[in-house]
Amino acid sequence: MSNESLLNQLRIDRDQPSRRSPRRRPRPWVLIISVALVVCAAIAALAWYLIAEPDRTPVREATAAEVSSAGAPEGVPLLDASGYVTAQREATVSAKIPGKVLEVLIQEGQRVVANQVLARLDDSNARAAADQALAQVGQAEANVRLAQAALTDADVKYQRYRGLAGQGVVADQAIDDARTSLDNARANLGVQRSAVGVAKAGLEIAHRNLDDTIVRAPFAGVVTATSAQPGEIVAPVAGGGFTRTGICTIVDMASLEVDVDVAESFINRVSQGMPAVVRLNAYPDWAIPGELIAVIPTADRSKATVTVRVGFKLKDPRIVPDMGARVTFLSPQPANAAAGPPGGGVSVPDEAVKTGDDGQSIVFVVADGRVERRAVRLGPHEGSNQIVIAGLRPGEVVAISDKTLNDGDKVRVIKGDAPSD
User: Fold this and answer.
1) Domain around 201
2) Tell me, what's the pLDDT at 359?
3) CA distances from 209 to 299, 413, 415 (A)
4) CATH number reported for the structural domain that contains residue 178 in this entry
5) Residue 312's closest CA among 280, 344, 281, 351?
6) Which region among 124-128, 246-250, 357-361 has the lowest average model confidence (pLDDT)?
7) Residues 219, 341: one domain?
8) 207/217 same-domain check
9) How far, in Å, CA of 196 to CA of 216, rounded?
10) To the nearest whole number, what is the mean pLDDT of the chain?
11) How many domains does the chain divide into?
């Protein structure tokens, strides 16, 4: 077989029909039906919206949340008063002796513990005084040793003269002089020993003065201000325009409380131990449980008010001195549990609560696409929420709308803010 014949067998004939099965094309009537169904669904949705929805009032909804027993107020509000956060333990720390500041070891905002070193003064003079007092102690002790030697010598001499007195060798006058010398030596030893005590007391004072160059924290707290810097002169009492009287100010944050002024005409409503809720001006949505500590037994004649101390039941680093605060005093007796749900009531947004024509507080409960008018009894505010202590159960959905709602109105729930009229 020739090469040409072999090549002809390998050549592909493109005129022959393909062995693959032809692709099935979709039938046109299926596409037409699908498009028609989509169009009909869109038309039906538009018709439902145009026919059914316009007669429904758009509202937003909110679920009534149960207020836990731990966070619920202990009673109904009786009185509101404003005041400031104060600290019962606050100290401006200074050195006990005048001196130049050598180093300051703290900064504002730092927490310190009791007896922690805050600053050091220049101790060169105090250290020199301590060395001098130590040398004086050594000198006094040396004088004691000399006095002891003199006493020993006087005692030996006196004993010798007494032994010779019976032999007539020593005159009686010499024996008397020896006795006098012995007594003087004994007295001198006592004086020198007392001088040692005085010298040691002076050394103790010098050590105390040396220790006073180290300024320590009197109690645990937070440094709120620093008054002196290295190189400045400080003293317990101001000695001039360039003399500081303090190193820093320390506040015991555990002793923070609120001092409020209550009008004299309302002071009979408060008493020691009654519960309260404190709201700081810096955190108006934060309700802090508190308790009335004491009513200061004096009145301000110019303002006709009485100062009341309110303590925090909750300690938090966000509470700092001199913050403005508003205190709501609560009834010592708990609110009537039978009038509202257990656990202190429920919380709903402020805008969900309306005032009826009769002045009654109401909410509109959403159920099956309609709203039900519900009269409620209110408790205190909790930031942007309102506590409802009667008339509403946890889990019920209330309507929020700027439009006027009536009992039985049809509503539709929307996202975001409800449109106003």
Assistant:
1) 124-211
2) 74
3) 45, 78, 74
4) 1.10.287.470
5) 280
6) 357-361
7) no
8) no
9) 32
10) 81
11) 4
- Considering the domain architecture, whether residues 178 and 301 belong to the same structural domain is answered as no
On whether residue 6 sits in a domain, the answer given is no
- Who wins on pLDDT, 394 or 344? 394
Whether residue 142 is found in the same domain as residue 174 = yes
What is the predicted pLDDT for the residue at 158?
Answer: 84
How many CB atoms neighbour CB 110 within 10 A? 16
152 and 277 within one domain: no
The pLDDT of residue 340 is 42
Q: Compare 45 and 372 and report the one with higher pLDDT.
A: 372
Please name the residue that has the structure tokens 């007494």.
162
This model's pTM is above 0.70: no
> Residue 105 sits in a domain of what CATH number?
2.40.50.100
Q: Are residues 176 and 201 in the same domain?
A: yes
Query: How high is the pLDDT of residue 228?
Result: 86
Q: What is the rounded distance in angstroms from the CA atom of residue 407 to the CA atom of residue 372?
A: 5
Q: Please choose, from the candidates 395, 397, 355, the residue with its C-alpha nearest in 3D space to the C-alpha of residue 376.
A: 355
Rounded (5°) CA angle 122-125-126: 85
- Measure the CA–CA gap between 119 and 170, rounded to whole angstroms: 72
Are residues 200 and 243 both part of a single domain? Answer: no
pLDDT for residue 168 is more than 90: no
Contact assessment for residue 277 and residue 380, using Cβ atoms and an 8 Å cutoff: yes
Q: Are residues 313 and 268 in the same domain?
A: yes
pLDDT score, position 344:
56
Residues 6 or more apart from 239 whose CB is under 8 A from it? 98, 233
